[in-house]
Design brief:
DNA repair, Uracil-DNA_glycosylase-like_sf, 12% strand, EC 3.2.2.-, alpha/beta, 186 residues
Length: 186
């Protein structure tokens, strides 16, 4: 099945659109992107832009039994995985979000975590995490700070613009989280 390729007009019309969360109570991992891109907002699917490395990293790390297409995102819930974003509105680039918007997104994310209580929250983007949670020294990997009973892991952004994380290194970092989840680490 071929994915819908939005036209330039559809992409422009998607600016500032919001993408619904894919979330349920008691997930193993809630993955949190920075914000939806225009391609994702136009198609209604998280991490939908060709070249985004989220879906390949999720599969190569062992979170999914096969490579999912963005249109199959709903199958993640059956695997105990969910998707949300720090910034709600769609932009062409994540750096279009300001610090206040990211901090407000951090407050909203903390409320979602308190309501849905995933075992792990995986924030995809260390710079966005630092800003949203005033964690200036945060690095990729497990964080000391938790949200209630939910542990926090910061992953690199899977955007194709994040060139200093190769697809292999990105999958290895996702795999470190998957191993912690499988080991029941809290």
């Amino acid at each position: 099945m071929r994915e819908h390729r939005p036209t330039p007009a559809e992409l422009q019309a998607a600016r500032d659109r919001r993408l619904p969360d894919l979330i349920a109570p008691g997930l193993s991992v809630l993955f949190c992107g920075i914000n939806p891109g225009l391609w994702s907002a136009a198609t209604g699917h998280h991490f939908a832009r060709p070249g985004n490395r989220f879906w390949p990293a999720l599969h190569r790390s062992g979170f999914t039994p096969r490579l999912f297409r963005p249109a199959e995102q709903w199958e993640l819930l059956e695997l105990g995985l969910g998707l949300t974003n720090l910034g709600g509105r769609a932009t062409a680039r994540a750096d279009e979000l300001g610090a206040e918007e990211l901090r407000a997104g951090g407050v909203a994310l903390a409320a979602k975590v308190a309501e849905y209580r995933p075992r792990w929250l995986a924030v995809l983007g260390v710079s966005a995490y630092r800003t949203a949670f005033d964690a200036r020294r945060a690095v990729v990997g497990p964080q000391e700070a938790a949200m209630g009973d939910t542990r926090v892991w910061v992953l690199p952004s899977p955007s194709g613009l994040n060139a200093h994380w190769t697809p292999t290194a990105l999958a290895e970092e996702f795999s470190r989280l998957r191993q912690a989840v499988a080991a029941g680490v809290r």
